[in-house]
Amino acid sequence: MLFWESPNVSEWAVWMRRTLELAETGRYGVSPNPMVGAVVLDAQGRVVGEGAHLRYGGPHAEVVALAAAGAAARGGTLVVNLEPCVHFGHTPPCVDAILAAGVRRVVVGTTDPNPRVNGKGITALREAGVEVLVGVEEEACRELNHRFLFFMSRGLPYVSLKMALTLDGKIAAKGGKSRWITSEASRRAGYALREEMDAVLVGVGTVLADDPRLLRHLALNPNPRVWRVVLDSHLRTPPTAALFTHDPESVMLFCLQGAAAERRRELEAKGAKVVEVGDDGKGRVNLHAVVKALASRGVSSVLVEGGGEVHWSFFQEGLAQRLYAFVAPLVLGGRDAVPAVGGGGFSAPQEGVKLRFLRWAELCGDLAVVAEVMGV
Questions:
Q1: Fewer beta carbons below 10 Å: N end or C end of the chain?
Q2: Which of 50, 62, 83, 195 is catalytic?
């Protein structure tokens, strides 16, 4: 990424951090769009308008901020954390609004890899005579929209694994009991992750053992619907499962080709979408085919909530990008207790999945950890 130095770069960094604060207000409503905030400064450097993109399909941050600034924007500066769009989508191009407002400078945090943008917004502004600075607080801007940027550049959903586990790595005691390992605060933080993801995914073992609904519980997102995805190679999900008690049309089951035709008809009669994919060579659904199928349906982010075999499969296939772990100050022990990551395991430490800790905090006695999978 090129960076054009400005004598006032520290000043632009201050205002870019303000755009990130504004963008954060759209965390639970904009997906699969990015979180964007914008600040308008007049020719004397005074704030005359602010805006944020708050919901998918709603006005973009630049348009909101420019409307608030009105005529005071002319000759001034627009600061925005993501490159302005130059195409028609649910709303007109932001570049057109910027040019109509008459600003003389645009400060951009990072470019937008969306093929319909990807530098075209910056080029259009420069060709119209607007000064454009790119790369201010870029790392923070990219972290805010890491899922969107991954989806646009790779064409696959960003996959995060969520685990509630003991200090010795168990997600359930022997016999399968798991309620409750972590505190209420940790559970709420886990539920909050559902509010910002497009899909929640579990294995059929979790459905059979816990009978979860996998709904959004906190009402943080104005859209209550989240795709509820089950990996169910042989369609063992019962039609009486709690998944179907609310919004069954948001349930998506992935199975092998030709699996349990009668059960499929029962599940589809409930409203579920049953998607056949290929075999992974071990008698299970191919995860690469699953994530591609989700991407084709516009799913840009997936929260994997288990169980241990599913976690292992995503790690083993190199399809996990981030880990959210809520660790309780508790030891269960036991060879038969359920591990957070199952499977066959790696044969040497050097073969294991390398992580980079991003942040951690105490949460009502638990330890909440966010880590990034390296090399993905």
A1: N
A2: 62
